[in-house]
Amino acid sequence: MTNVKHLSPKFRHVRLLLAREKAHPDGDREEGYDVLAPLGSDGRIDANEWKSHRASCRVRHFRTGEEDLIGRLRRKSGGQWYFDYAEGDRDDEIGFHLGDERFVTGEYVSIERNGAMHTYQVARVERP
User: How far apart are CA 10 and CA 40, in angstroms?
Assistant: First the structure.
C-alpha cells in the first residue's frame, strides 16, 4: 500500500458513492470508490502531480457481496482518465470527463462500469 508520509501535500482520499439511478432510487452507500489522487485547489485532478506520482494514485471499487477491486488511476494519451485494475483493458472503468470534474463534497462524477454509465456523488474529500 502507498506510504502516506511520502505523498505530495496535494494528495486527497476521495470517497465516491453510487448516486440515485433507476436500479437504486435512493443511491447505494455500499457501492462506490475510494480514490487516492492529487487535486488542485479547484478540486480537479492535478495532471502534473499525477505524472510525478503515478504509482501512488490508487483506486478501490467496493460493493457489498463482491470482492474489492484494487487498481490505479491512469490517463490515456488523449487525456481521458480511467481506473485500471489489471493487465489489458477488459476491466478498465472510464471516467466521463473526469479531468474536468471537481472532486468536492456534493459534486457528481460519472464512471462507465461494465458497459454502463453510473453516477457517483463525492461523499468525502480528506487528507490521507
Answer: 7
In the chain, where the domains are located: 9-126
12-39 CB burial, b ≥16 within 10 A, e <16: bebbbbbbeeeeeeebbeebbbbbbbbb
Furthest CA-CA distance within the chain:
42
* C-alpha cell read off for 14: 476521495
Query: Would you tell me how many other CB atoms lie within 10 Å of the CB of residue 41?
Result: 7
The answer to whether the CB of 34 falls within 8 A of the CB of 13 is yes
pTM for the structure as a whole: 0.90
What is the percentage of the chain residues whose pLDDT exceeds 90? 73
